[in-house]
Design a protein that fits this description.
Layout (H helix, E strand, L loop, with lengths): L1 H31 L8 H13 L3 H20 L1 H24 L9 H21 L7 H11 L4 H15 L1 H4 L2 H22 L5 E7 L3 H11 L4 E8 L4 E11 L3 H11 L4 E7 L12
Helix pairs in contact: 1-4, 1-5, 2-3, 3-4, 3-6, 5-9, 6-7, 7-9, 10-11
Length: 287
């Protein structure tokens, strides 16, 4: 039964990776490439090669990834890289299809607007891929290999690689304005990736200190249909035992919880903090 469940679980991952890569390919070929902007990662290098030599970016992307994957398979193993291999093959195919059908920029005579729209699409696409534990290869592989031997944060390594690639585009394009556009595109992409992976998962954790904890807990259960937990605590100033009520809820429910607590006990002491990745019944599913 567990094997059957895991099989279905993985198929959903691969389907979501495909959708994410499709969105990414359209954003790159339909919006970013036509206005001559360079992105980060291996696709950014492939774009530079195409701008300089005319070689289609999907060829550079695929061949370079093959070399990187060969090294990574030796160091990281097949189990770790299988979704990356899938991502590289699918993205190469989708880039080729988009190159065949998208011949003109979707947004004409608006390079900055086109770049921002493309960055949003690419960011959403990559976010979907990352949320399914997938990868597009390229600098992801390089940073993963470095991360295995050196204590460097994965996100920081990716950011450094992207920044270097974008700055090096000046030697090909000879235009500072394009670099500024590219840095803006990178910022928008990073923000969209973060919003897809973490932004919509944000929940709140509320700690309630009140003598009427039992009434508050019952009201939260019955009126707001949220679970809560009661812990034993000790007020160190008063040296008196107290009860601490813990509530995990979605951000949109926080105002309702505060109003409910206030209606029961106006003197309640409340602490609210933002949490990410709350999984289980009533929240996100584990991916």
């Amino acid at each position: 039964m567990s094997k059957r469940y895991l099989k279905e679980f993985y198929w959903k991952d691969y389907a979501l990776i495909f959708v994410g890569l499709a969105v990414y390919a359209v954003g790159l070929i339909g919006f970013i490439k036509p206005v001559g902007i360079v992105t980060g990662g291996l696709t950014g290098i492939a774009l530079l090669v195409e701008y300089a030599s005319g070689i289609p970016l999907q060829y550079t992307y695929f061949l370079t990834n093959c070399a990187l994957l060969f090294v990574a398979l030796k160091l990281l193993g097949l189990k770790f890289m299988i979704k990356t291999i899938y991502g590289v093959i699918v993205l190469t195919f989708l880039l080729t299809i988009c190159q065949m059908f998208i011949k003109e920029p979707i947004v004409k005579n608006e390079p900055l607007l086109s770049g921002v729209i493309g960055a949003m699409m690419c960011g959403v696409g990559i976010g979907l891929v990352f949320s399914s534990n997938g990868s597009t290869g390229g600098t992801d592989i390089v940073v993963a290999i470095i991360n295995k031997y050196k204590n460097i944060a994965f996100g920081r390594g990716m950011l450094l690689c992207d920044f270097v690639i974008i700055c090096c585009s000046y030697f090909v394009l000879q235009d500072y304005q394009i670099i500024v556009y590219a840095l803006l595109v990178m910022g928008v992409m990073t923000y969209c990736i973060d919003m897809v992976i973490n932004g919509f998962r944000q929940s709140v954790q509320i700690l309630v200190f009140s003598e009427k904890y039992d009434t508050i807990a019952t009201a939260i259960n019955e009126e707001l249909h949220r679970g809560c937990t009661v812990l034993d605590g000790m007020g160190w100033y008063t040296k008196r035992p107290t009860k601490v009520l813990i509530v995990l809820a979605k951000r949109s429910e926080a105002v309702g919880i505060f109003r409910l607590i206030k209606s029961i006990d106006e003197r309640a002491f409340i602490s609210q903090s933002t949490v990410r990745g709350v999984y289980g019944e009533g929240f996100d599913k584990i991916r």
